[in-house]
Amino acid sequence: MDEHSAERLAAIVESSFDAIVSKDLSGTIMSWNKAAERMFGYAETEVVGQPIYLIIPDGKRDEEADILRRLKLGERIEPFQTTRRHRDGRIVPISITISPIKSRAGKLVGASSIARDISETRESDRRLRLLMREINHRVKNQYAVVLAVIRQTATRSRSIEEFEKRVRERIMALSHSHDLLSQVEWAGVSLANLVAHQLQPFEALQPVEILGPEIVLDANAVLNLGMAFHELIMNAMRFGVTDVGGISVTWRLTSEEGGDMLELVWSEPAVAYADLLAQEDGFGALVLGKLVPSALSGQAKWNFTDGLIVWKLTAPLARIRIGLGSSASL
Q1: Per-residue model confidence (pLDDT) at position 173
Q2: Hey, where are the domains in the chain?
Q3: How far apart are CA 200 and CA 192, in angstroms?
Q4: Arithmetic mean of pLDDT, 64-87
Q5: Over 70: is that where the pLDDT of 4 sits?
Q6: Is the pLDDT of residue 80 over 60?
Q7: Where does 121-329 sit in CATH, by number?
Q8: Which terminus of the chain has a lower count of CB atoms within 10 Å, N or C?
């Protein structure tokens, strides 16, 4: 190797983001680049001439001895993951590649190690596994909800066409809630945004009064309240409430002996036949009277006062929210 090539190689080693360490066959450190200093906390002047065991955890000493043994036998060592010890005592997970160092005559004289810190990769993998388990759990829950939608809609449909239409509408409502959760990476959706999002496809229902303190819902509450709002919206559309207007969705927080509660109220004008949901003979009544309150550990009831139909849901705030901010309204 000429002088220019040697200088270029030295510059590449020194500027590498990976720790590059060379050692002789006894395990003594011969070279140590800047990345190795950053990764393990030792300056080059502190480690050159020291045994490589300086950075090897006690439980990995046999691993290092086996590496040197295999190199002497001429075996190829595939890249692998292991750990090394930082100067401050913490363990650094690394991916490492071992290459033999030979003299001009082809004699093995040492080994070069290229190490990459994989702490962030491992943490990302851990979080990904947790996320996949959570997604799997939520998907299974949604399968159960979809099956319930299909089963209950089927028992209450008078024709295949009606069944197909109602199932499609209800599954699309679930999809809208999923869209909202996906936009925030399942971190929570404000109650006001959920109501507005469910109302968005129905221009005839605009404007609807949406009023209450800022509450960020967890995923379970988003999906279940999304179903409830869909049934209420479809009932209002079906029975012509839009001709009268006056729909409102309001909520407030109350304190009871068992803890803070959410009190959510949907009210609409009591036009002809608009009380069908309260008679417990439809899927909407099942959703609003049983499924959603049960999923949120709450209670729901209907009232007819002052020419209004009112659906009121009361549920523990702890079963609904992720966080609580300042009051806001739309």
Answers
A1: 79
A2: 3-117, 121-329
A3: 12
A4: 91
A5: no
A6: yes
A7: 3.30.565.10
A8: N
